[in-house]
Amino acid sequence: MAENPSTKLSTLPFRHPPQIIPSSSTHPLKPTPKKTHPQFQSCHDSIDVTPGARILCEILSKSSPAEVEAALSSTGIQPSPEVVEEVLKLSYGSPTTAIKFFRWAGLGQKLSSYSWNLIVDLLGKNEMFEPMWDAIRSMKQEGVLSIATFVSVFGSYCVAGRINEAFMTFDVMERYGVSPNVVAVNSLLSAICREDNQTLKALEFFEKIKTKIPPDGDSFAILLEGWEKEGNVARAKTTFGEMVIRVGWSPQNMSAYDAFLTTLVRGSQSDEAIKFLQVMKGKNCLPGLKFFSNALDILVKQNDSANAITLWNIMVGSGLVPNLIMYNAMIGLLCNKNDIENAFQFLDEMPFYAAFPDSLTYNMIFQCLIKNKKVREASRFFFEMIKNEYPPTHQNCAAAISMLLDGEDPETAIEIWDYMVKNGISPLDDSSNALLVGFSDMGRLTELRRFTETMLDQRIVIYESTRGKIKNAFYKKGRNAQDIYESLSRKWKSL
User: Fold this and answer.
1) Closest Cα partner for 432 from 474, 398, 404, 392?
2) What's the pLDDT tens digit per position in 322-374?
3) What is the DSSP letter of 179?
4) CA–CA separation, 467 and 88 (whole Å)
5) Phi/psi at 130 (5° precision)
6) Angstrom distances, CA of residue 412 to CA of 17, 409, 415, 435
7) Could you tell me if 188 and 201 are in contact, meaning their C-beta atoms sit under 8 angstroms apart?
8) pLDDT digits over 214-230, tens only?
9) Do the beta carbons of residue 216 and residue 247 sit within 8 Å?
10) Element housing 200 (H / E)
């Protein structure tokens, strides 16, 4: 194995140099291509840093390995165990000088087990695995090794893409005097599943270890969250089935239930998710509001109003209280499906759950009424909106004016336009042109002339296509009407 000169054992920061374990032994080290290191937090990024720790961190980030010990000694600072921990947390980006600091800080005091774990984690996150294992051997001599140390190693290997070496680390734990337990198992499962598309690897480890160390609810939750991330419905069903057999039902396993049900919903198997929800309700294991909110978001994207309503009824029937965002999601879905009746039902029940409608709620329903050409309903709803101080958007105003004029309700169309003008709802151009086009199509020249003059006075842009409609409407009515149009046309040209 190639040795990095900057990490030779002679430079390591350990007060009791360990015996070297040969590379041919159980020491799980194989060189792999280096990944780009993440951006680590430093003292430059942090505000809440003690003065002594900041001085020491600055030295580590700016000094060369050969100079750092002298620079540290020249400060006259004798760092407490807490300051050592603080400095290490902020020195992941300077691993070589951090090693020197660790050695220097340990000359006059016994360092905490947390400091040792930090140096192991720091080395591992920088993929300096040889010195990391030397640190672990020194920790064994110091008697400060723990499960937490190996949890860090699992994470470092998995982030580096060296999952097989994480497995080997688990296998050698007992040789270092640490007995693996379900916490260690779950930590390794979690480290693997955090990486993309590696849940099958985690399952392989799980299958191998479950007869030696019985899994708990968290073990299954980690796997189910992995299947959820990967969208593997079939594997999720198998894992969930085994979970029920091994650990039974318990409200403490809610994260596992959330992940399993979400996988089903996202995998377009909402019918099955609803069946499981009914079972869970009977077992007093119904998920919380977070699951229902996420599931509704998925069903909205899938445009599945039938299952969304069923899910909603289970939720409110179990005593959970939906919020405004969830109501708006449901109303938006129903409006998209043109299910106006149910949309109004949801709107009416909102105050009973202290989820009061907002502008989005009203505008989604108003838009749906316009789209479905519900003239009378849209007219009544407009007045309800402005009464509750949630006016339509300018886009909905323009669409409503066109629809109302097509439906022969010019009075409400005018009310909407007047409301826009009086209340400063802008831009006015689309609504104004919709009003003029509607009156042109209806042949109502009196209103057409009055509103055209008003809009010209207000410098509202009248589109060329609208002008053509106005001209045709006047020219159809004979000579006198043509003269009126020509008068309007001259006024246009003078602007």
Assistant:
1) 398
2) 999 999 999 999 999 999 999 999 999 999 999 999 999 999 999 999 999 99
3) -
4) 74
5) -65, -55
6) 89, 6, 5, 11
7) no
8) 999 999 999 999 999 99
9) yes
10) helix 199-209
What residue type is 349 in one-letter code?
A: E
351 preceded by a cis bond (ω within 30 of 0): no
Radius of gyration of the chain (CA): 35
For residue 38, the model assigns a pLDDT of 62
CA distance 262 to 225: 9
| Helix orientation angle between 95-105 and 65-74, rounded to the nearest 10 degrees | 40
The token pair at 360 is 């989005």
C-alpha pair distances (Å), 32 with each of 39, 157, 170, 244: 21, 11, 20, 40
Instruction: Say if CB 93 and CB 107 are below 8 A apart.
Output: no
What's the CA gap between 415 and 411, in Å, rounded? 6
What type of residue sits at position 385?
M
* Cβ–Cβ under 8 Å, residues 165 and 197: no
| Tokens encoding 94 | 């300077």
Write the CA distances from 23 to 26, 27, 33, 130, 302, integer angstroms. Answer: 8, 6, 18, 10, 54
> Residues with Cβ < 8 Å from 79, sequence gap 6 or more?
52, 53, 56, 87, 105
- How does DSSP assign 319-376, residue by residue? T----HHHHHHHHHHHHHTT-HHHHHHHHHHGGGGT----HHHHHHHHHHHHHTT-HH
